[in-house]
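The protein record quoted for completeness.
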Amino acid sequence: MDSPTPAAPPTSAAPSIPAPRLPEARLPGPGSPTWEYLAPWYTLAFGWRALVLQTAHPVVAAGVRDHSSYRADPWGRLDRTLTALQRVVYASEEEIRAAALRLRRRHTRIQGTGLDGRPYTAFDPEAFAWVHATLFESVDTLHRLSGRPIPAAQRARLYQEWLAVGQAMGVRPGDLPEDVSGFDAYFADMVATRLIDTPVVRDLLAIGTEWPVPRPEALRRLPEAVWRSLHAPVFRVGARITVATLPAAYRERLGLAETDPRRAARAERRAHATLRAVRGGVTLLPRQLRYQPIAARAMRRHGHRPPVG
């Protein structure tokens, strides 16, 4: 199968994302689909998959390769990314403006020579929009595969809210489709024509098995020997779930598609069962522990009772 043509980075003057502005569409707030569906801890189950899809874009891969601390400090990198996302979603308009400004300042230095030898910047419009798009698609896919698909009307509203968040952060109007049906076609086209097999993707799929991962701070009391014995099998399962839930066309591009239909079906069933178990386990927790802290605090602040999950 021929590889798709990598997205062309800028060649002379770097394209710039316009200064973030609050969009005309209403930003998400208490009771919105965005607040409901991004709050539970189990949404983190697809963070790995979203990172793989993002770094399959050649511009994103180059930026991560050159400027990310994901190898030296994977847990810190993950925490900063998730915290930044939560602070945008569960925020006032003033806080969103401040977050957008911080994002632009932090990403201004991200530039260099891309995988094809041409210059790139973090504000490449296609890559910038793609990163935002993968988060919506991954949350949507997680809920579908874990047995709780988002109803069509809610999904359409969730997408509109996510567009508004993206525009507030600097995604240009028109760089993502205006409705969810257009998004589905856009996503399929990006997978088919833009995503490639990158060294960063291979690195992410080898995390915890081919290169070690330090103990996270939350498990600092766990003996190091126990962590060393457990982390490789756990990450191996995570990688299998990630691969099994990637778009089929991209799995083929990576050479990871299962050629035996029965084995492929078993792998998908195992992945879906694991995701259902993760979601089910989180919903068994006391209500105050089911949701990520920033989300839970925002809901309490606005007097909004968190969803059951």
User: Anything to note?
Assistant: Residues 146 and 274 are 8 Å apart (CA to CA). Residues 5-14 have pLDDT under 50 and may be disordered.
